[in-house]
Write a structure and sequence with these properties.
With 269 residues, the protein is α/β, with parallel strands linked by helices. It has helices spanning 6-22, 25-30, 33-46, 63-71, 84-96, 112-116, 137-147, 164-172, 176-179, 203-209, 238-250; strands at residues 53-57, 76-81, 102-106, 121-126, 148-159, 214-221, 262-268. The protein is 40% helix and 18% strand.
């Protein structure tokens, strides 16, 4: 992978998400039915495992840390985000319901071991691809490994490099730049008018970076079911949504599981 100046890179990522927060990301996300359905499945998988002290990396406006802290008042949750504006939104969300068992801080994965120490968490989760915006995935994997207690669990999701539906559909539309955007070393994110410095990962790339861990579960999302940014295609078509979601579940045991919009891995230390 091309070497990136970390200072400039992380500054650009933070700036992007600061703007996103101010441009109404929170409101858009809260009414997206596909996003919510996928999010709920991430949570369902995460809560299969025992935890007492949990870290969320890339919390955005705080939907998930708020959900966990509300549901598990006897557990401790810490959320971090690189964006100061997203941290503000998360703090407001936690304060609104007086959730004292959750804390949010402005940071990124490079500093967490120094901030919290080795073997600090039973579980670490990353939803919706925050690790796609790190400069060095292998180094981030090492940080996560250090932060987890022995037998600790990491529930990590990634924007997929080989999203076949997008590749096929955009090629048919002769949108070759969009069709192949994920295949390069740097991906510009979802926005058509703003650039997010990021990377899309193949399954082999993820496994190589996290080779210290044991894989205890894996899943793919939006293989046939639309990705969150195409929620309008099924928002008012519940029967179609159910059929496509069910189809995705049926093919999890086939090679197609890893050809959707997102991949999820459950790693154990």
């Amino acid at each position: 992978m091309t070497k990136i100046n970390d200072g400039d890179y992380y500054s650009d990522v933070a700036s992007y998400y600061n703007d996103d927060a101010l441009l109404g990301f929170e409101a858009r996300a809260s009414i997206n039915t596909s996003l919510e359905r996928i999010r709920n499945d991430f949570r369902r998988i995460s809560t299969r495992y025992k935890f007492n002290r949990v870290l969320e990396i890339g919390c955005g406006p705080g939907f998930d840390v708020h959900w966990f802290a509300s549901k598990y008042p006897d557990k401790r949750f810490i959320a971090v985000d690189i964006s100061e504006e997203m941290v503000k939104l998360t703090q407001e969300r936690l304060d609104q319901d007086n959730l004292k068992n959750a804390t949010v801080i402005n940071s990124d994965e490079r500093n967490l071991v120094n901030q919290f120490g080795n073997e600090s968490f039973d579980m670490i989760y990353v939803y919706f691809g925050a690790l796609n915006t790190v400069s060095d995935l292998k180094q981030s994997a090492s940080h996560i490994y250090s932060l987890l207690k022995p037998n600790g669990i990491a529930v990590l999701t990634f924007v997929n490099k080989w999203y076949l539906r997008e590749l096929f559909v955009q090629t048919l539309k002769l949108n070759f730049k969009i069709a192949t955007a994920r295949l390069g070393k740097i991906w510009g994110g979802y926005s058509v008018d703003r650039f997010l410095p990021s990377h899309c990962y193949s399954v082999s790339r993820i496994k190589k970076a996290f080779n210290k861990f044991q894989i205890v579960d894996k899943r793919g999302y939006s293989i046939f079911y639309p990705p969150w940014y195409n929620d309008h295609k099924i928002k008012n078509k519940p029967e179609k949504a159910e059929k496509l979601w069910a189809l995705d579940q049926k093919i999890q045991s086939t090679p197609l599981w890893s050809k959707g919009e997102y991949t999820l891995f459950v790693f154990q230390k």
